[in-house]
Amino acid sequence: MARPFRIAVITLLGFLLSTLVDSAFDTESELGLHTLFKIRGPQTPPNQMVIVAMDEASETRLGVGQDLTRWRGFHKKLIDQLNRQGASLIVFDLQFIAPNPSVDPMLADAMRTAGKVLINECVQKFRRGVEDFYGREECSDRNKMPAISREGEPATSLSEQLVVMRKLSPTPAIARAALDSAPFYLINDSENASIRESWTFYDALAEAPSLPVLAWFYYQQASSDNPDEKPLSAWLTAQRRACATPTPDSAKLDNRAKQLICEGDSRYLNYYGPPRTLRMESYADVYEGKVEDLQGKVIFVGRANRQFSPGKSDFFPTPYSDSRTGKMAGVEIMATQFANLLEDRFIEIPAPGWLLSSVFGLLIALLLVGFAGWPGIVLSLVIASAYAGSAVWLFGQRYWWLPVAGPILIQLPLSWLLSLAWSRYDLMRERGRILEFVSRVFPQWVGMLPAAPGQWTETANAGIARSEKDVSGLCLATDIEGYTTIAAQHSPREMWELLNTYYQVLGHPVVSHEGVIADVTGDAMMAVWFDAPATQQRRSACLAALEMATAVASFNLSSSQEPLATRIGLHEGDLTLGSLDAGSSSHYRAIGDTVNIASRIQGVNKYLGTRILAAQSIATDLEGIVTRPVGTFRVVGRAEPLNLVEVVGKISGDPPSNKMHALFADGLAAFQEGRWPEATRLFQAALVVDANDGPSRFYLQKALHYSEMPPLAWDRIVVLDGK
């Protein structure tokens, strides 16, 4: 399957599933954003504002209880106290809807005298009339009147989608005395949804500004070019409506004010930490004059239990909320929005989430398709870790919110699964093609086996298929050095074409010397010789191995692709030839320890830098073939050591003298006897004669090492720690 198609499928499926899961479970907000906040940790808030908490201690000391109207008798003195200390602005997170004639006139006089008091307006949200009702504090049950008329029978329900919002103004005496008023609406606590963003303007309420925005403009008015108009709430509404058609007043605004008024109607809150992170003073302490350092501060007054109490109203979960920290009071959320306005530190989304997720998915898909298997997975994990780290850093330093939950928890694992599934599919197809090739190129296989390897059928040569045969034979194992790296650089089709030619080259010497190809798997081939005298089997296998090495060398010279360096190992012993049933098919194999040892011997080549190694017994009575002993080795997985020889080449007549071989043989004898300095000298002399001799180079390193650190108990055996 073409790479561009795979990249597109992995990217698209990962993105779609991530989007669906996020739509169903709100994972990016509930998990991603919350995780970013908790990794970043608390930050220091600005010191320009103070929360005066109508807390449990104040309820007890002032004897007001839960009735908010009873607090009004104390608000007058609180305002006078804050005014004397030079507070810049006093913001009440209270609506003052229900009148209290006994104290309202005195409270109104205090507000009028201070000239710096802002109050909250009640916002009610209705869905299906009074059946679904949302409101805060004094937006109580007595204000639950139908927001719209319903025709027909009284039991008629309104549409689930029909939502109505309305604003209830404070009692007239207090509304006229306050500097200004604006709503501050939060979702209902019973929905158990975290407060992640807050309104700047309520377009559903005739473009009314929110109370924190109104407070910020009043706070900035004295030191900025904002018009000195009263009330500012009406002016801000007019500016909001005029965003599409600028007015002379809007030309006087700075860029930040224009952006706040005209761009969007909400902002993501940048919380400074868990509840009570902002400076919070007890109402009773401020009322009694026990709190100082309030000059120039913006004071937010509202319900805020400093001892967390789950049963209290007007408390909301935030990204920092847990069983230890509890929920955050509405007045602290209001103060948080004001602090974000002061520092211009709202959480921003620098680009659409779908775009960032798509780019992330595309990059992961490119890596997984370009680097098949585990290399691609490791690289994609590195990239994902770098992306997650960048998201955490940008969130902490730039207040940018990049999607992390969807890309890391959904897109990445799904991309891995798709990539591994395709790799498995490619492997099965490649194996099928190789087996088809073997049956086509080596027709003598059909006479030996009922069907090609991996394609056994119960009806083909059933008599032979059901037989197992114990033989004393010889096994030849091959392997391509660096095959995994080569395969990762090519498509399956390119590897098929390369291996198709390679196995033709590799298989002909086996067939011409009466061997049988027992298995072909990826980069490895297994051939066997049996039912012939041992001397004949040894000679045929060695000749086949030498011709294979020569043929592969010629193939590599003529090929435009990477050279396929081939290692060969030979071992003889008992084998069982027969079929292995797997599901509905059977596979003809050579089974036994001889096969495993041949594979291990093949692996020793990479240590010695040789092409063909064989068990020492195979070198017995060989005519016309040159071999040389290369030592005794203990390989991985076997306790018994192996005496190995290198199959060097063919000769006719008596073997000529070889000075390098003689020096190596003397050096090997000295090495095995533990005479390390002499062995070092002899191996160095051998390398002077032939600088490319791998065994001499291998043993020279060993002799030098043992000269400095002799083994504790030398048994003449070289231990190899890898295959």
* Helical segment count: 24
Assess the beta-strand content as a share of residues: 15-25%
Shape field: elongated
Q: What profile does the largest beta sheet have?
A: 9 strands, mixed
Structural class comes to alpha/beta
Helix content: 40-55%
Radius of gyration: 42 Å
Number of strands: 23
What would the average pLDDT be, to the nearest integer?
81
Distance between the termini: 34 Å
Low-confidence stretches: 144-156, 158-162, 441-466
Explain what this protein looks like in three dimensions.
- 45% of the residues lie in helices and 18% in strands.
- It has 24 helices and 23 strands.
- The strands form five sheets. Strands 15, 16, 17, 18, 19, 20, 21, 22 and 23 form a nine-stranded mixed β-sheet that branches. Strands 1, 2, 3, 4, 5, 6, 11 and 12 form an eight-stranded mixed β-sheet that branches.
- It is an alpha/beta fold and 723 residues long.
- Helix 2 crosses helix 14, helix 15 runs parallel beside helix 19 and helix 23 runs antiparallel to helix 24.
- The radius of gyration is 42 Å and the shape is elongated.
- Strand 3 and strand 4 form a beta hairpin.
- About 6% of the residues have low confidence.
